[in-house]
């Protein structure tokens, strides 16, 4: 006589559900990390590409006008150049690179790491642009700017980079170049300068007010 088998209701045990949930969470974490890294790399690529465009335009402007494009800075006190939409700005590019001759279509390029940070001051959301000889003239007691001229050349363009910090408050590390080999999110700013230096600057020579 054949003994009838008891029917087993289909479904998962609690342990099986917890294991499945754990696997899903691990895979989601990996996917989010990959997305974040890809997003950061895309912004870094954009910064370097836009810096190349600006640096080429700066040098063409210099050839045409025998001077560098004017930077915005509060020490000039000229609203025609030192404001954007009526808001005072310092340390950024001015419209002279796009008007009346369009060396670039838009001189006011925003740093992709800062452009959505609406709580930040307006000039912190654009790329940093500094004409170093003008800064030497306006800050004759500064020890920083003469050394910066020797290191960077007459101009430099900067992005805060993935760490979103311009000045890290140690060793005057606003001069620290971003190096992805230290990790995709690491200390340092993305700099492009006339001398195209990519090594770490001699920090003791670049200390001081600037």
Structure in a nutshell:
This protein has 210 residues and is α+β, with helices and mostly antiparallel strands. The chain has helices spanning 14-65, 79-82, 132-138, 144-152; strands at 71-72, 83-84, 87-88, 92-93, 128-131, 155-159, 190-193.
Describe this structure in words.
The chain is α+β, with helices and mostly antiparallel strands. The protein has one domain (14-206). 34% of the residues lie in helices and 10% in strands. It is built from four helices and seven strands, in the order αβαββββααββ. The strands form three sheets. Strands 5-6-7 form a three-stranded antiparallel sheet. Strands 1-4 form a two-stranded antiparallel ribbon. A hairpin with a 2-residue loop joins β2 (83-84) and β3 (87-88). α3 (132-138) runs antiparallel to α4 (144-152). The longest helix has 52 residues, at 14-65. It starts with 13 loop residues before the first helix and ends in a 17-residue tail after the last strand. The model has no long low-confidence stretch (mean pLDDT 84).
End-to-end separation in angstroms reads 98 Å
Question: What characteristic shape results from the CA principal axes?
Answer: elongated
The value of Rg in angstroms is: 26 Å
Number of helices in the DSSP assignment: 4
Q: Tell me the domain tally.
A: 1
Largest pleated sheet = 3 strands, antiparallel
Helical amount among residues, as a percent range? 25-40%
Query: Order of strands across the widest beta sheet?
Result: 5-6-7
Low-pLDDT residue spans: none
Number of strands: 7
Strand content is: 5-15%
What's the order of the H and E elements? Answer: HEHEEEEHHEE
Work out the oligomeric state of the chains in this entry. single chain
Judged by helices, strands and strand pairing, the structural class is alpha+beta
- Mean of residue pLDDT values: 84
């Amino acid at each position: 006589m054949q003994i009838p088998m008891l029917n087993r209701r289909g479904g998962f045990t609690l342990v099986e559900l917890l294991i499945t949930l754990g696997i899903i969470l691990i895979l989601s974490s990996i996917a989010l990390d990959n997305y974040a890294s890809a997003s950061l790399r895309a912004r870094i690529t954009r910064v370097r590409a836009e810096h190349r465009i600006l640096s080429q335009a700066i040098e063409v402007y210099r050839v045409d006008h025998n001077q560098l494009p004017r930077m915005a800075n509060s020490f000039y006190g000229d609203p025609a150049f030192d404001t954007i939409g009526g808001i005072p700005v310092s340390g950024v590019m001015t419209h002279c690179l796009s008007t009346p001759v369009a060396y670039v279509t838009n001189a006011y390029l925003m740093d992709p790491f800062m452009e959505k940070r609406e709580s930040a001051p307006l000039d912190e959301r654009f790329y940093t642009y500094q004409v170093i000889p003008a800064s030497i003239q306006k800050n004759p007691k500064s020890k920083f700017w003469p050394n910066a001229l020797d290191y960077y050349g007459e101009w430099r363009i900067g992005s805060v980079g993935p760490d979103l910090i311009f000045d890290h408050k140690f060793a005057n590390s606003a001069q620290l170049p971003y190096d992805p080999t230290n990790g995709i999110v690491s200390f340092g700013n993305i700099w492009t300068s006339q001398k195209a230096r990519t090594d770490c600057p001699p920090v003791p020579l670049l200390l001081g007010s600037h």
